[in-house]
Amino acid sequence: MIFSDKGTIENRVPPKRHKPLIFHVRRLLRPKSITIHGIRLCCDPKLVGRREMRRLFRGNHENAEVYALRHTLEADDRVLELGAGVGLTSIFASRIVGPENITVFEANEANRPLIEKNYALNGVSIPVHYKMVTHEGGKKPFFVSDKAVSSGPVEASGATKKIELDSVAISDLIADYSPTYLICDIEGGEIEVLQGDLGSIRKICVEVHPAKVGNYAVTGLMKTLIDQGFTLAAEISNGTNQFWFR
After folding, report:
1. Separation CA 97–CA 77 (nearest Å)
2. At residue 4, does pLDDT exceed 50?
3. In the chain, what are the domains?
């Protein structure tokens, strides 16, 4: 990681900047794929929802996560990602640690075609387990949204149905994979998953979802992480995207 003499991370997250010209050109041309952060991403409207398509066309998709990974992920880290999204963060991480040092869990089977397409576009093979991850494991509710990447364990506006999924306990994953770096974007599920002993994990890049779980729950999660010896790197965190280390 990049630290100053005072022990804090030097690089601040740059402000978000929209690129309206690029956005309008891409929306007009409707390319089959675009490149963001050096990564080719599919723009097939059959696979990508309108919300995600807008982010792709603006060129700011997963900016905060990529910024954190660029400055905190090291070649000897072992990565566990919960919530694959479109596959961008795992592809980016694979260029630092190698795909053999990444394990991905994605609860929403509907995301599989897009993830596999993006992996293929970038010539990477990363193991993805289409399984929900929770604190204790077992059957858990999962709310399906028409926006596939917004589906998750917490009911929110846009949810079209509730289903029950088998889940795996995060403690089992920590025991099996000994990850040192956790990437977590599971639409509110982070509140439950990050409770308890996180074992070998030393760094966490997490997106919190106060709009879904409330500010009180997010504050409680932050206290839990502090109690486990983690420190919030405020200089590299950006709004709901937080980076913790210990």
Report:
1. 6
2. no
3. 62-245 (3.40.50.150)
